[in-house]
Amino acid sequence: MHTQALALLGQELPGLHHLRLGMCMQVRDEGLLQLKPLTRLASLDVSGCENVTGNGLAVVANFPGLTSLMCNQCNGLEQGSLVHLNGLHGLQNLQLGWCIALTDADMQHLTHLTRLTCLMLSYTKVTDEGLPCLKPLARLCRLGLQVMPSIS
């Protein structure tokens, strides 16, 4: 999905609540910027959009009503990208599986997301050292840590 198509969505469907763009390989940060008018967005799926980076997450931070963010296999996310999620206090579902650059240092950026009930971190570089950062997430009831050899 090209930037022009995302611009059309942003302009023509301002009441959109849920948007699934999974595996749309042409989605880039610039395209996500075109979604800013979607102020009612509650759920966004950009799983498999490998060109989405931390700058794209900065755009996502403009959706204060977001409760679900799926970024599985977003290999463009680099260490430090999660800092942009700090303001999404209503986030309940965060899926970051197969985001292979995410490490223990990134876990500190999740401590403010105290409404999280589901967090998927499978196939990341998170180790035992990053897990204590999840302690403030008292509502967490689903945690995915599959295929993580550094978790003991």
Automatic annotation (TrEMBL):
Highest rank taxon of the organism: Eukaryota
Gene3D superfamilies: Ribonuclease Inhibitor (3.80.10.10)
Primary subcellular site in the record, as a coarse category: cytoplasm
Stored InterPro entries: F-box_LRR-repeat, Leu-rich_rpt_Cys-con_subtyp, LRR_dom_sf
Subcellular location: Cytoplasm, Cytoskeleton, Cilium axoneme
Transmembrane segments: none
SMART domains in alphabetical order: LRR_CC
Designated name of the protein: Distal membrane arm assembly complex 2-like protein
Species per Swiss-Prot/TrEMBL record: Dunaliella salina (Green alga)
Biological classification of the source: Eukaryota, Viridiplantae, Chlorophyta, core chlorophytes, Chlorophyceae
